[in-house]
Each structure stands twice: as structure tokens, then as C-alpha cells.
Amino acid sequence: MVAVRLLSVVLLLVTANLSVAAEPAVIVQTDDWESEANQARQSGVPVMVVFSAENCPYCDRLKTEVLAPNLQQGQFARRVHIREFDIDRGGKITDFDGEPIRGRIFVSRYEVFATPTVLLLDHSGELLTAPLIGFDNPEDYNDRLRNNIASALHTLATGPRYVMGNGPE
Q1: In terms of DSSP H, where are the helices of the chain?
Q2: Mean pLDDT score of the chain
Q3: CATH code for the structural domain at 23-164
Q4: Paired residues of 94 in beta bridges
Q5: For the chain, which residues make up each domain, given as ranges?
């Protein structure tokens, strides 16, 4: 009888852990920002865009040392809708307003000149915080990222928006 109760408790704990399992550690790439913004809007969270490049060792470090662990631990759950965009990608994508736009125009709009660059955007594609450009070490980056996420959530709820080069409006 004790064995049956112990087994029941173990199964209950395993099932409970599966139901609140962390997000997968893979960051999805996208070319449809309208769809991503709609998903973020439904969740009430900002869109986090990770601008990366294929042969960028700092992008790889950011993903493996900061983003993947945060995803695995559920740190982004109900806080951001995270997607990746490869700046070397050619062709057209769907912008936040549903209109087609060239990938390079999307990159230049946000003045992305180095990778990785992480932006937190509202559902219209407007900046909520200052960009996080480059990667130095996981501890400092995590601190800055958490601060930006908290600020983005606050700004999304209350305004004003961040203006490139000027800070909040």
C-alpha cells in the first residue's frame, strides 16, 4: 500500500512538472511579423526580436549562454514573445502592418549595425526600450535583458514609447 501511494505521488509530481514545463530552448526564426505581433498581443507581452547573422560567434554565445537557459527555465514565459531574424536573409518579409517589406529595410529601420542586437517592440513594431547591442558576458547581459524586459512590460502597459536616439517620448 505504501508503494502504491509513493508511486502515485511520484506520478503526480512528474505530471505536474510536465504541465508547467519550460519553453523549448530553440528560438524560432520568422518572416511574418504581423503574425508574431498578433500572438504577442493576445498574450499581452512585447515582441523580442533577436537580430543575428549566420557566422556570428557572439550570436551563438548569446543564444547558448543566455537565451536558451532562460527559455529552459521558463524566464520568458508570459513576459516576451521571442523570435529571431537573420540579417543576411534576402527577399521580402511581412511587416507588423501586414505589408510586404524587404528584409534589409526591416533591419535598417531599427538601425541594426551589429549582431547580435536584441529589440523589445510593441505590437506595431515600435521600440519599447533601448536596443541591446553586442554580447559581453552572460551575467551582465542577463541583468540588462531582465531590466529591458521589465521596462518593456511597463511601457507596453502605460507608455510612452522609446524613440531611437532620444529615449522615451
Answers
A1: 2-19, 33-43, 57-62, 68-72, 103-109, 138-158
A2: 86
A3: 3.40.30.10
A4: 32, 100
A5: 23-164
